[in-house]
């Protein structure tokens, strides 16, 4: 069955561009400017009501650099996917690539996961590894990881669209 997908982005949107169909399609865009709201609660109310109105099967967080509140997460269980530029559960939160370089890991990567109420802690769908080079800094590592993000995310979304992802506890089985 055909799925309807909405993408939440707050940055440059290269992951959105990597989703081939989205590139070709004329996607309706809605802007909810959080700077116009006097509190995070009010912003999230507006976001939730917009998300409820669009009636989609999946929300994809592609470079959505804000924490999604519990009220929103609980409204769409198993229907929100995020990409994180590290091999979770390592280096959650912001500047994951910088954290990896500073920690001195030899391998990092990216993780696509379902969103739950924890920070970057939901059930893992796919991960790609990227070797960290001795001369890497945050930017060079981020650039290499991003190339993998652009493969990993569309792959995970495709699996979702084919109904091949089954959440069992905190595991995701690929059918
Ligand atoms: C990506 O590295 C993503 O993993 C992180 O923010 C970056 C967003 O890139 N959450 P873009 O906006 O998709 O280009």
Description:
35% of the residues lie in helices and 21% in strands. Helix 5 crosses helix 6. The chain contains 6 helices and 7 strands; from the N terminus they run βαααβαβαββαββ. The chain has 175 residues and is an alpha/beta fold. The longest helix has 24 residues, at 138-161. The chain binds 5-O-phosphono-beta-D-ribofuranosylamine.
In short:
By secondary structure, the chain is an alpha/beta fold.
Unreliable stretches (pLDDT < 50, length at least 5) are none
Q: Any idea what the radius of gyration is? A: 16 Å
Strand content: 15-25%
Q: Quickly give the structural class.
A: alpha/beta
Mean pLDDT: 94
What's the tally of helices? 6
Bound molecules: 5-O-phosphono-beta-D-ribofuranosylamine
Main sheet specs: 5 strands, mixed
N-to-C CA distance = 16 Å
Helix content: 25-40%
- Count all strands and give the number: 7
**Series of secondary-structure elements, N-terminal to C-terminal:** EHHHEHEHEEHEE
The geometry reads as globular
Strand order of the largest sheet: 1-2-3-4-5
What order do the helices and strands come in, and which of them pair?
Elements (H helix, E strand, L loop, with lengths): L4 E4 L5 H4 L2 H5 L15 H15 L3 E4 L8 H6 L4 E5 L11 H8 L3 E8 L9 E8 L6 H24 L3 E4 L2 E4 L1
Parallel strand pairs: 1-2, 2-3
Antiparallel strand pairs: 3-4, 4-5, 6-7
Helix pairs in contact: 5-6
The structure holds 5-O-phosphono-beta-D-ribofuranosylamine.
Task: Provide key terms for this protein.
175 residues, alpha/beta, 5-stranded mixed β-sheet, two-stranded antiparallel ribbon, globular, binds 5-O-phosphono-beta-D-ribofuranosylamine
């Amino acid at each position: 069955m055909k799925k309807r997908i909405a993408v939440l982005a707050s940055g440059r949107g290269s992951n959105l561009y990597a989703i081939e169909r989205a590139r070709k399609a004329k996607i309706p865009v809605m802007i909810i400017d959080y700077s116009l709201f006097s509190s995070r609660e009010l912003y999230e109310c507006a976001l939730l009501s917009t998300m409820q109105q669009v009636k989609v099967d999946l929300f994809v967080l592609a470079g959505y650099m804000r924490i999604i509140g519990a009220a929103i997460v609980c409204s769409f269980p198993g229907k929100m996917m995020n990409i994180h530029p590290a091999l979770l559960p390592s280096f959650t939160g912001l500047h994951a690539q910088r954290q990896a370089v500073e920690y001195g890991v030899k391998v990092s990567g990216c993780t696509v996961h379902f969103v739950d109420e924890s920070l970057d802690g939901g059930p893992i769908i796919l991960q790609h590894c990227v070797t960290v080079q001795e001369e890497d800094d945050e930017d060079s590592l981020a650039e290499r990881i991003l190339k993998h993000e652009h493969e990993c995310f569309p792959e995970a979304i495709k699996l979702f669209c084919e109904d091949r992802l089954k959440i069992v506890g905190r595991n995701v089985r690929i059918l």
